[in-house]
Amino acid sequence: MASTSDIRKGLCIRYNNDIFKIIEFMHVKPGKGPAFVRTKLRSVSTGKVLDNTFSAGHKIEDVRVETRSYQFLYPEGDTFHFMNTDDYNQITLQESLLDSPGLLKEGEIVKVLFNTEDSMPLSVEMPASVVLEVTYTEPGVKGNTATNATKPAKVETGAEVNVPLFINEGDKIKVETEKGTYMERVKE
Question: Which residues form the Translation elongation factor P/YeiP central domain (predicted)?
Fold first, then answer.
């Protein structure tokens, strides 16, 4: 059993007869009244996001998890195929277990969290950022860069990312996987 002081991003807990992963949390100490922790939880079975508030000192049941490295092989409908980098066993996971499936490139190494009690996969942790090639974007207009203007760009995985006007087709960009936002242009 853990308490609210142990809450951190990525922690898996058992709540309302389901397993949830904490995706956001904030400790709040109001001027009047007891402290509490405001959390955003994602169900690992359904992918639903739930807002919940725990009072300070509340006991929560954490789930012991094990992390293993897997390589993304290919998507097939709403299932994704992964291969264990240690023993080459393959698994298929539902799209709901992935935080940002649109940014997952074939060959990418991810961390898969498993419940140690029944060895069921709980969620997939993407790397902090990925490098993707821009496959389509409108050309930028010269001299239109005085403001922080952006334009949509389609990347090699099919996802759309807003990029600065100076990005062209064929450029490689670094994308933050958590928010799906442009970070920087990558030079070869």
Answer: 67-122
Query: In which residue are the tokens 């860069």 written?
Result: 145
98: DSSP letter = B
Residue ranges matching CATH 2.40.50.140 in the chain = 65-125, 130-186
What DSSP element (H or E) covers 40? strand 36-43
CATH number for the domain running over 65-125: 2.40.50.140
Report the distance separating Cα 51 and Cα 152, nearest Å: 31
Predicted confidence (pLDDT) per residue in 148-187, tens digit? 788 889 999 888 999 988 888 889 999 998 888 899 988 8
Computed from CA positions of residues 10, 11, 14, 16, in that sequence, does the dihedral angle turn out positive or negative?
A: negative
Could you tell me whether strands 109-115 and 90-94 are parallel, antiparallel, or unpaired per DSSP bridges? Answer: unpaired
Residues 6+ apart with CB under 8 A from 56: 4, 5, 34, 35, 36, 37
CATH class of this structure's domain 130-186: mainly beta
Output the pTM of the full model: 0.74
